[in-house]
């Protein structure tokens, strides 16, 4: 069991980071390996069987008592017992988890949910593309340049269960259950790319597949090729730690840039909540940051190392451009349709945005509109807050963006998220409460209604109104 401690991560030089890049996730990797006979490669039947069994993990409460159903004839009888052992080791929260901080972190998400969704699209997701090897895995696992919504919806299917009330602590929550599924997905991807268990599988050269036959996901992963000596493990500890920072640190960094700065205790509670999630995901405690200062140092260190990598071909621009296009298509209000691109550039910084191909072809009028609007918004907010402390146009516009992205990608009734029905219902109920901003004066809420919908944010309640 981990010793209880909070403090700075062990800040490392690039050589130490490369050591962590060679580390994966022993528990999850061992679980996947135990599905197989020695020397056997992972097949689609075993993956599908595990996926069906994990569908029973509907909330945290079922995990402790879960047992696999009797295997059907021909099924792999190794999968169920392996999953049972995995749960027995992976379900517990770390002994340094602080319930009060977790409750505070959840409340922060509830209070700023629409902003969190906008920042997920315009900061967290594109930041994930900065690391070349992580972008390469994302590309082959999800074909994101042509299926961007898949990644968006998968991410939301983890974020909401973790951050909704009791997501990590209540038997009725589902954060632990969802994260443990994601952890096994990472291990499955590693096993397929390496054509074996990390430590024994090395990936090797790409395999040319028959062009006439449709290529399934597991075939694409196995055929891709991977050089462990230069690329480290797929979905390794550094990449997982960096992804964790995109959810916690990048959200808080963006809130500061939007002049929505939070109390230090709130920021640290939010980081703590994501660190507990990271423990469940299999991230080593040494790679977690507990303060904004430490998070900034670790984030910049990992990011800087990625800038010196020169992948050929580079998968990052296609992913960033596809994300930009997808966001623009989701927004119904013409006046703000193209603003997520310059917003993303501003939040990420120009160097990182260029690496992921965001903003290379943004019309000058869009850039001018954003820069002018940003300057005016900051000036108006600064003046009006002298009399109305909760007045914020920046918060208004990011909430409006959040509404359109939420309703397009995450609340669609025709394309529901891959979550248990009761969890989808809870998610819809949560979003419905975001219809009025408790921090804003009534004037701004009325203006927000004109660009979103009146009343609770429920799907298809009213069509979005066009701004006038």
From TrEMBL:
Transmembrane segments: none annotated. InterPro entries: Lcp-like, MPAB/Lcp_cat_dom. It comes from the Bacteria. Coiled coil: none annotated. It holds the Pfam family MPAB_Lcp_cat. Residues 148-371 form the ER-bound oxygenase mpaB/mpaB'/Rubber oxygenase catalytic domain. This is ER-bound oxygenase mpaB/mpaB'/Rubber oxygenase catalytic domain-containing protein.
């Amino acid at each position: 069991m981990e010793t209880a401690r909070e403090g700075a991560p062990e800040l490392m030089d690039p050589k130490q980071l490369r050591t962590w890049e060679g580390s994966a996730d022993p528990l999850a990797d061992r679980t996947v390996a135990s599905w197989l006979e020695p020397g056997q490669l992972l097949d689609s039947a075993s993956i599908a069987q595990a996926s069906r069994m994990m569908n029973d993990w509907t909330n945290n409460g079922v995990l402790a008592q879960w047992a696999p159903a009797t295997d059907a004839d021909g099924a792999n009888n190794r999968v169920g017992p392996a999953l049972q052992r995995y749960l027995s080791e992976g379900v517990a929260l770390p002994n340094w988890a602080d319930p009060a901080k977790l409750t505070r972190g959840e409340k922060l998400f509830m209070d700023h949910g629409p902003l969190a969704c906008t920042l997920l699209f315009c900061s967290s997701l594109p930041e994930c593309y900065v690391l070349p090897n992580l972008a390469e895995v994302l590309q082959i696992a999800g074909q994101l340049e042509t299926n961007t919504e898949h990644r968006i919806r998968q991410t939301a299917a983890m974020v909401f269960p973790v951050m909704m009330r009791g997501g990590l602590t209540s038997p009725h929550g589902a954060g632990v259950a969802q994260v443990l599924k994601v952890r096994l997905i990472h291990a499955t991807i590693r096993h397929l790319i390496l054509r074996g268990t990390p430590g024994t599988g090395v990936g090797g050269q790409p395999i040319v597949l028959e062009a006439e036959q449709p290529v399934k996901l597991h075939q694409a992963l196995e055929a891709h090729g991977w050089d462990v000596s230069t690329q480290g493990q797929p979905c390794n500890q550094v990449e997982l730690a960096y992804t964790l920072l995109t959810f916690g640190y990048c959200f808080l960094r963006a809130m500061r840039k939007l002049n929505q700065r939070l109390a230090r205790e709130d920021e640290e509670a939010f980081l703590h909540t994501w660190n507990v999630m990271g423990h469940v995901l299999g991230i080593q405690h040494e790679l977690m940051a507990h303060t904004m200062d430490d998070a900034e140092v670790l984030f910049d260190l990992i990011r800087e190392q990625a800038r010196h990598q020169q992948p050929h071909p580079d998968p990052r621009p296609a992913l960033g451009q596809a994300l930009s296009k997808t966001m623009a298509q989701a927004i119904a209000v013409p006046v703000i349709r193209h603003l997520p691109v310059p917003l993303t550039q501003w939040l990420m910084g120009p160097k990182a945005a260029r690496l992921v191909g965001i903003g290379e072809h943004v019309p000058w009028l869009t850039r001018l509109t954003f820069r002018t609007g940003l300057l005016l918004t900051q000036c108006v907010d600064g003046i009006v807050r002298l009399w109305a402390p909760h007045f914020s146009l920046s918060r208004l516009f990011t909430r409006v963006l959040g509404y359109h992205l939420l309703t397009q990608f995450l609340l669609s009734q025709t394309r529901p998220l891959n979550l248990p029905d009761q969890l989808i219902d809870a998610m819809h109920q949560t979003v419905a409460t975001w219809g009025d901003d408790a921090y804003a004066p009534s004037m701004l809420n009325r203006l927000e209604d004109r660009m979103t919908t009146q009343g609770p944010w429920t799907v298809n309640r009213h069509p979005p109104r066009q701004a006038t």
